[in-house]
Give the backbone structure.
Amino acid sequence: MYDYHNTEIRVERLATNRDHCGTPGPIYELAQLHARGRISDPERDGPLTTTDDRRLIYAVDADLQIHVGFDGDRGTFNAVKHETLFHNAPVEAAGELEVADGVVVSINDRSGSYGTMGMMRVDRRMARAVLAAMRRAKVPLSEAVVDFLEAQASE
Amino acid sequence: MSTQTLDELLVSDIDDLTALPSRIGSDARHALLSAAAEALGRPDLPSRLKLIRFVQALAASERTLSDSAAESVAVPLITAAHADDPTERLAALRCLAVVTSQTETTNLALTHSILATFEHARIDSSLEIRAFANELLSADNPVFRRLIAVEAATAGTGKMALYLETLLDSAHTMSDAEADDSNAKDRKSTN
């Protein structure tokens, strides 16, 4: 599990009002956004497409639920950050998702809060958790993402 | 890259530090990695966890790390992997795993030191650290395979081969179901 709660990084952020564990949201359960084979945009009509200005961050908890949110600016009121997604709980995985026309086309393990950078390659438990969570939530994934996750999970 | 510049960078939030490596060139990343490796040895460092995670992000952004870069950063990470603070130990082990996976090293002594560090972590007091070390030392883990490749390429002492035999022996005495059950218990205990 990747922890944030008991770290000096959280202590530093709390001291500077840059911790976002308490942000209420919006946070979305990815399984709930799935409709007709696509991920729906929770804030606009139609399938979701992420952009550089609307980056989607994700985290997977111990029960393999995937929560997502649109990455906010740290330090601004009610910004959603990785630690927001499960309100400070340890996670199995965290990173960013790129979604095009309702399909996940890219996934990474970049989370400063949880320190997951590069871990998808070396900690197969993380890749397995992401793959299992995605499958359970019936998240539409591009072939490239499936191949990537399966390779990381089973190497 | 001066120490002063690194100190200034370390005032930034870890999110910004994590994003930085993908925004700069390879030369700048190497310079930062070198400065960070040196800083890891400083006892007065205010935020060791942040520095270790920065090193991890720098290493993860590189296609491959040179032998010298890997050695400069691996040595202080091995020390950090034996720190009193379990959070620092786990962060150092994770960072060391990423560095190892990004390095096509031929340095047998360093490889054995890394292996010994992972082996030592298997008896750590922290369940999470033990579980991670067990994952790293699985026969088909890419980090372990990388370590074995060094042994093969350098005609080493056979330590890895012996280790593999031990792993295979334990695999015969522990079924997959038992192993999964054991991992699940480990994970639950850390929650």
Q: What stands out?
A: Chain A is about 25% helix and 20% strand. Chain A touches chain B at residues 1, 3, 6-9, 12-13, 18, 62, 74, 81, 90, 110-113, 115, 117-119, 121-125, 155 (CB under 8 Å). Strands of chain A lie at 28-29, 34-35, 38-39, 56-60, 66-70, 93-100, 103-107.
